[in-house]
Amino acid sequence: MSKALRLSEKWFRRGLWLVALAFAGFLIGLGGTVVENLPRVEQTYTTENFIDAAAAKAARAALANAQAAQEEASQKLEQLELQRQAAHSDVQSARETFTNWLATRRATERAEQDPELLARTRKLDELRAAERRAQARVQEQQQVQLDARQAEQRTRQALQALEDAAREQLEVAWRQQELRVFLYRLALTLPLLVVAGWLLARKRGSIYWPFVWGFVFFAGFAFFVELVPYLPSYGGFVRYVVGIIVTVLIGRQAIVALQRYLERQRQAEQLPDSQRREELPYDLALARLAKSVCPGCERAVDLKDPANDFCPHCGIGLHDHCGHCRARKSAFSKFCHACGTPAAALAQAAPSEG
Ligand SMILES: [Zn+2]
Ligand SMILES: [Zn+2]
Question: What pTM was estimated for this model as a whole?
Answer without folding.
Answer: 0.57
